[in-house]
Each structure stands twice: as structure tokens, then as C-alpha cells.
Design a protein that fits this description.
about 260 residues; alpha/beta; 4-stranded mixed β-sheet; single chain; 5-stranded parallel β-sheet
């Protein structure tokens, strides 16, 4: 249930159009709904400004569909991350409104588009084409959370001129999400060139000694560029949420300073 929906219920009670008993029936499932195998957090958007997001990996299609139905019934947009094509087809057969984004491995049902709020654009920068699944997860989540999003892809340090050519555009953003695998150097370079918050995302891309993204993670955590925030390996969703909260600092729910 969103803040807008709760406000509507309270306004209706205040105006006498809805009884207190009817309002209680609408609110009784707050703050969560228990499905037995999952407890759906109906208050997430009220507390955090974004809805609960389903992590699809490790859940069955039936579980995702059951959770998704309850989320949609509550009038909240549905976002499912880490969902492969086969599982997405199975979920979509039960939730026909779900739109699947294969490159990001993300499914979504938008009940009402999130209003655009924030100080400026969120820029998603990726080092290489192999990083695109994580970069697109971050970009799509940021858009679904109500940000204006720009993308600059394939500008890694193996050809630094590709990055410097785009610096004017990058400097216009409010927050940057920088995605890189291999040695994970790109966030350090970007953070050393601009005065904007940088959220770094290590990916599991790389040869053997990349250790499934551990080398990139450690490289980003040990960056000599000050103020870089690092999320977990392949966590595009987490980066999108961090960037969203940074972009909204000082802005209330109505979009006013």
C-alpha cells in the first residue's frame, strides 16, 4: 500500500465518506501480509519511498507469482530481479501484465508510474558490454523508482578516451552508478574526475583470478578515490536504491525542498 493510497483512505474518513470500520478493513493487512512461505512488506513504500522488490533467484515461479499477485492486489507496482527467461515465461503465464526485460533479467508490473523526483539525473556507467546485465538492472530499477536515468556504456579503462569523451555528459548527472568487472578500476577513475556521488558495482565478469567478482569488489573497496560507495557483487538493484536515496536527500514526498 502506497502513501498516496493511505492518504486517500484517511481523507475519506475525515470527510465522512468512509467509516472508521471500513478504513480499518482496508488497513488491516498492514504492515505485512503472511503467505506462509513469505511475509510481504506492505509498508516498504511508505517507509522507504520504493516498493518491496522480489529477488527471483532461488524462488520458484509459483512462489514469485503468488507474491506478485498480493503486491499487485495491494495496488503497488511489482518488480522482480534475477529472473531467468524460462522462469519469467512461467511467471508471465500467471501474471500476464508482467513485462520482462531479458538483458536485465528483470520483470515488472507498473500499476502507477513513480513520479519523477530528485535533484537531477542518475547516470549509469558501465566498463564493458559484458557488464550490461548488471548495468541494465541498475538503470531499470532506478527508472522504476522515479529517477531520470542516462546511460553511458562500454567506457572502461582499457580505452580511457571513451570515458573522457563523455565527461561533459557525465558531469551533468546528480549521482553516478559505475559498473565494472575484471579489476574494477573504472569507479576509481570516474570518482577522481568528478564531484558527484559514485555508487560502485563490482560484477562477476572476468577470468579465473577475478574470482567471480571478488577482485573487482576488493579493488573498489580499496580505491584511492575518496567517497566511493560500494555495493555487493552484481547488485544493480542495491546500487539503484542507494542512488535513488542520495538523489532525493532534502526532497519531501511531494517533490518539494
Amino acid at each position: 500500500m502506497t502513501e498516496k493510497q493511505i492518504r486517500a483512505i484517511l481523507d475519506s474518513v475525515a470527510s465522512g465518506k468512509t467509516s472508521a470500520a471500513a478504513a480499518m478493513r482496508s488497513l488491516r493487512e498492514l504492515p505485512f501480509h503472511d503467505l506462509g512461505f513469505a511475509k510481504i512488506d506492505n509498508h516498504r513504500s511508505l517507509r522507504r519511498g520504493v516498493p518491496e522488490v522480489i529477488f527471483g533467484e532461488g524462488k520458484t515461479a509459483a512462489q514469485i507469482a503468488a507474491i506478485g499477485r498480493r503486491v499487485i492486489t495491494a495496488g503497488t507496482s511489482l518488480v522482480v530481479t534475477r529472473i531467468g527467461p524460462d522462469k519469467a515465461r512461467a511467471v508471465k503465464s500467471k501474471l500476464r501484465r508482467m513485462k520482462y526485460h531479458p538483458e536485465a533479467r528483470l520483470g515488472a508490473v507498473v500499476i502507477e508510474p513513480a513520479p519523477v523526483r530528485g535533484h537531477g539525473d542518475v547516470m549509469v556507467v558501465s566498463a564493458g558490454t559484458s557488464d550490461l546485465p548488471v548495468a541494465e538492472e541498475a538503470a531499470l530499477c532506478a527508472e522504476l523508482f522515479g529517477n531520470r536515468v542516462r546511460r553511458v556504456y562500454d567506457v572502461g579503462v582499457a580505452g580511457i578516451h571513451r570515458l573522457t569523451t563523455n565527461l561533459d555528459l557525465i558531469r551533468k548527472s546528480s549521482v553516478l552508478i559505475v559498473v565494472a568487472g575484471m579489476e574494477g578500476a573504472l569507479p576509481s577513475v570516474v570518482a577522481g574526475l568528478i564531484d558527484r556521488p559514485v555508487v560502485a558495482v563490482p560484477t562477476s565478469v572476468g577470468y579465473g583470478t577475478a574470482f567471480g567478482g571478488l577482485a573487482a569488489l576488493l579493488g573498489m573497496l580499496n580505491t584511492c578515490a575518496s567517497g566511493v560507495t560500494v555495493v555487493n557483487i552484481d547488485n544493480g538493484f542495491g546500487a539503484a536504491l542507494a542512488a535513488t536515496l542520495i538523489n532525493r536527500v532534502g526532497i519531501d514526498r511531494d517533490g518539494c525542498d
